[in-house]
Amino acid sequence: MITRRNLIVTGGATLLAGCDAWSNSPILLSAEEANRYLQRSVTGRAALAREFRPDQRSPRFRTNGTANPNTPEYNALAANGFADWRLQVGGMVQRPLSLSLAQLRALPQRAQITRHDCVEGWSAIGKWQGPQLEQVLRLAGLRDGARYIVFHCADVFGQRKIPYYESIDLIDAFHPQTILAWSMNDTPLGVGHGAPLRLRVERQLGYKHAKYVMRIEAVASLDGIGRGKGGFWEDIAGYEWYAGI
Predict the structure, then answer these.
(1) Where does the chain show beta strands of DSSP type E?
(2) What DSSP letter does each residue of 59-87 carry, written as one string?
(3) Whether residue 12 is found in the same domain as residue 56
(4) The whole model's pTM is what?
(5) Long-range contacts of range 24-31, CB-CB < 8 Å, 24 or more positions apart?
(6) Most CB atoms within 10 A, among 55, 66, 113, 203?
(7) Using CA atoms, how far apart are residues 11 and 159, in angstroms rounded to an integer?
(8) What is the residue range of 38's domain?
């Protein structure tokens, strides 16, 4: 079977020969960078995910990943209706932010009905609402050299209690359908779906849609994040960093 990664390996010479012209510099792309370049050269960097009518929403929308972080810290926030929760925005930004749910809801909102495609093989259609990630990043002001946005979450895994994390590049971060959703199907997110805030990056598979987002960090490189592959499942299970659909 031909996969994106197989295509990179078998066609790498052709791709890398062309990337010099694309970048105007004699650089050698990593496998992941070449993968992203190849995918976007086919699909178009600004292409939109399909949006659906209200009557096309799924009657049942399964939870993906963690159903409840169930840590003392998260339980305390949930017990208070997330009134004390704050989204921290930092790293390579000019103005670090600490935003409440009320402040996020006061920003211009985007609502979209899209299909969630899970790596486990199921799909569902739901309505999501929240501010575009772009708005929050512009409020913070990215510094020169920032290339990736990392999402640090409240759910933890394993005996070592590793917090979930994911990352996207600036192309996806500034995509118009990439939002920080606080509402699903016209009601605030439930715990199973990532309350109080989750990422929706509609042109990627479900594991990229980080739930229980606590902190957003702008970075120049993914090398210092986990094991350096850009996400929890990418690091421990070999998932693709660019899960484009």
Answers:
(1) 87-91, 97-99, 110-117, 123-130, 148-157, 162-169, 178-181, 183-184, 187-188, 198-201, 213-219
(2) S-----S-S----HHHHHHHHTTTTT--E
(3) no
(4) 0.83
(5) 31/5
(6) 203
(7) 41
(8) 1-44
Token pair recorded at residue 75: 């339980």
How confident is the model at residue 41, as a pLDDT? 53
pLDDT at position 55 over 70: yes
At residue 218, φ and ψ (nearest 5 deg) are: -90, 130
Please answer whether residues 245 and 204 qualify as being in contact, where contact means their C-beta atoms are separated by less than 8 angstroms.
Answer: yes
C-alpha 171: how far from chain center? 12
Residue 146: which CATH number? 3.90.420.10
Please determine, for residue 13, whether its predicted confidence score (pLDDT) is greater than 80: no
The residues pairing with 128 across neighbouring beta strands, listed in sequence order, are 112, 184
9 lies in the same domain as 91: no
User: Measured between alpha carbons, how far is 41 from 58 in angstroms, rounded to an integer?
Assistant: 32
Between β-strands 97-99 and 87-91, what pairing exists: parallel, antiparallel or unpaired? antiparallel
With beta carbons less than 8 A apart as the criterion, state whether 207 and 119 touch: yes
pLDDT in tens, 20-42: 332 333 344 455 455 555 555 54
CA distance 212 to 199: 9
84/78 Cα distance (integer angstroms): 9
Considering the domain architecture, whether residues 183 and 101 belong to the same structural domain is answered as yes
Tokens 């749910």 belong to residue: 101
113 within some domain: yes
Q: List the strands of the sheet with 123-130, edge to edge.
A: 110-117, 123-130, 183-184, 187-188
Supply the pLDDT for residue 243. 87
At 172 the pLDDT is 97
pLDDT at 78: 98
